[in-house]
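Dear all,

This email documents one entry for the complex benchmark we are building for the journal club exercise. For each entry we list the sequence lines for every component of the assembly. Then comes the predicted three-dimensional structure of the complex as a token string, followed by one or two observations. Please use this as the template for your own entries, and keep the labels exactly as they appear.
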Amino acid sequence: MIYTKEIAFGSIGAPLGENTDGACGGGTDAGAAQRQEVAWAGKTGGGISDFALEAHKGTKSNSVVYINPYKYCFIRRRFCMQFLASSSAIFALIIPVIILFYLLRQKREEELVSSTLLWQKVLADSISQTPWQKLRRNLLMFLQLLLAALLVLALMRPYLVRMQEPGRDLLVLLDTSASMGTVEEGKTRLDLAKAEILELVEGQKPGTRFSVIAVGQVPEVLVNQADNPADAASRLKKVEPGLYGANLEPALSLVTALLQKGNRTRVVFFSDGGAIVPEEPVSVPDFEYVKVGSRDDNLAVGTFALRDGPEGLLALTRIDNFGSRETEATVNFFSGGKLLDIQSAGVEPGGSAHLFWQVPGGTPFLEVRLETDDGLAEDNNAWLVPRQGRQAKVLLVTKGNIFLEQVLKLNPSLEVHKVGPGDYSGVQEEYSLYIFDGFWPDKTPRGQLLVINPPSSSGLLESGEEKDTGQLEAVQGHALLQYVSWADVHIAAGKGLISKGGWQPLLTSGGRPLITAGRVGQSRTAVFGFDLHNSDLPLRPAFPILIQNMLDWLVPSGAVRESQVNAGSSVELAVGPQTKEVFMTTPDGSRVQLAPPFPVKNITKTWDTGLYKIEQLTGDGKQEDYLAVNFFSPTESQVKPLDHLKVGSRDAAAPAKVRGNLELWPWLVLAVLLLLSLEWWVYLCGH
Amino acid sequence: MENLLFDRDFLRKLEQMAFLMKKSMAGRYSGQHRSPRKGQSVEFADYRSYVQGDDWRQVDWNAYARLERLFVKLFMEEQDLALYLLIDTSGSMGWRDGAKLRLAKQLAGSLAYLALVNTEQVSAAALGPGLTGYLPLQRGKAAVGRVWRFLEQLDGAGDTDLNASLRQAGRIIKRPGIAVLISDFLSPSGYHEGLKYLQHLGQQVVVLHILAAGEREPELMGNFRLVDCENGEAREVSITPMLLQAYRDRFREFVNELRRFCLNREIAYHTIGAEENPEDIVLRSLRSIGVLG
């Protein structure tokens, strides 16, 4: 429904020509010269929501006035005024209060004078000298109302945004890295960015399609080619900052794939700049970077680790100051959940402070807590789990292997028992690890296995034939072969091991696996397909390292191979063969069952920092292990937002110019100050 | 009478003073002031030709001897003076501690004493919205007490209408003389017509304008409801430094306007602060403006 009202504007009018662009489509071209039209278009009007006030001042289409009461949007000459804090409009209630004050009679002190004759004349004089007495009489009230209106407007933080050109799509990239969790005046940067995105999306002309992509370690499309701002609002509401860094490179690859040919798309990246950016030129034509946030003060726990000290274990804590001012850091040290010590240290800007704590014996876990009100809270805590001095019982079954005996002695956490192959049948006790050297029992024991030179009856061999070996080829990057150098290792002859059924070859020669890792039943098993005496491996530095790696894997000290990991890491669990159930208690207190089914899957999501408790329930007991998940990330702890973001060879940062927005509150405050001075002057004049 | 008691020293000084007349006025009794009539005094005035019926004793025989014509010698006659004391007794004169009215009564008492001891006649009238009371012409030193008692019982109350009250005072002003008007002149209806009327009655008018300090420099700042002490009329006003300055300017203009008017009408005018000493006013100020000599 359109209500049309004609308003005479003197000589302004001119022949009406073309219609304005789509933003003000609610207007009509009909009409005569010497008039302007005011068209109020209903929300159901084609192509235009809300209402529009359209003023035609000639044939030029650049004199467009567009008022959108729902979106607080005022557009003139392709500029749109929006508000960062539109909720501050509530302060406009002060205006009726001011009027009420003027309506109320002021309580005045009564004074008896000899005559009011002269006072009447004084008041009459001041009135009679001004022809606009009526207006001036209320001038103070008008000034105060204007002051209040300007203050409310300033509180609403209006800004001008250049309207988007028609026909351009909008693609918004939102940094969801940890640094976006930095608190700025009570709101996280992510919240600020989300609000800005919503305002940007709502300020688009009808018909503009927009997409929103969350930029984390991997990009995630939140909204794809939508044209309803409500879609973006509902999806953005669920986005939270994660404990990871942002990688812009895959996000831009995704953007490139999404960009349609022939359609100009404006790409806007809302971030604080703490993202991995591609160094290669990117093929995104209209890329803009919008800086979010301003504060730079942040203290972080950079390291929390154990060291041997003169009187036992020491916990080392490094406090990093990423801010620009020297800060006093107060750090609380907890052991087993109880406060043990408090230390303070001044940290210079860009510098670090190191604190040492004496670790009490037998403590299950340690925690340091930084007492500060800095930008990012996620990096103010760190946890540490001291390795338990648990002894693993190992049974070595061998005719005699001095190399094995010596290398096992190197590990103090092992309690090694040795028997000959003939005596194995008499072994009653259960061991965590069985090492069979040239031997294979009739019945596979319940425990982890290290098998060296197995006989054909073990079923571990592809063929029992022993062949000469040639060039050795090790699998690159395998955890069991970490730090193991095969350069000067020679093996005279070996049997080919099986590689099917989940067995992973670690060392091969001519395609024949010589060392493999896999499972026999539930038992983790490592197999050497050669006699150690037919090799110079035991004489090389590689041997103790390799055996130690295997022992770590076969008999880890706890359920978790690493007791301290960074947030977001995947954690491999190593539960004992006797374990019947595995539970995990997360930092928020929830308890989830990890097993059965067996084998236990890795913990793939450690997105929260804190202490994870792993419980292994056997038939007759329970073993508890702790996993500390910390967030050590210097790039994310550096919360100072970047003014310029260099993407490829292009500097993509000129936020104010790129967006064309201009915050108006400083000008409003200036106007308020001038008005205040004027009001004071008027007051002194006696009005 | 207590308020009007003056010390003897002051009264003795008063006795040595006299009213100065700008022109001669006809009196009723012999006195110290020249009369427009020619009479019996020793001061020669003029000659005129003898006409039948003239007193032969007045003929200047020396002139007849020289000129052989009869001339009669005329001499000045000295008669008494009528002093009319017109006192504003409106509410504004009794404002606050009544300092203005008290000073007005003291001045009137002093002038009455001065006149009576100089064998002049004195009348007093109280002016409010009209003529609220009067004392007919009194003569002789014995009348001092009566005049003072009349002045003593005057009380400041009621509105001010100088024009109306002066016109009514004309009923008691029977003879030309000196009319001393003592007032604050805060008369909403003005004072021009009244003063002109006094002059019309042949009075040499003397205006003594009494002003209180609180009228000259009001010590007010802020929001006030100013209530007129005469008619209870109230004005709400927010007094600011600027407004106070405007009041001072208006007050100065009010005083200057009265002074200008008096100057133009040859009326002796003097502004008196309510806190001033009456002796100083009479002995110095009134002499300085030529009222007393």
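Observations: The radius of gyration of chain B is 23 Å. Chain B has a mean pLDDT of 85.
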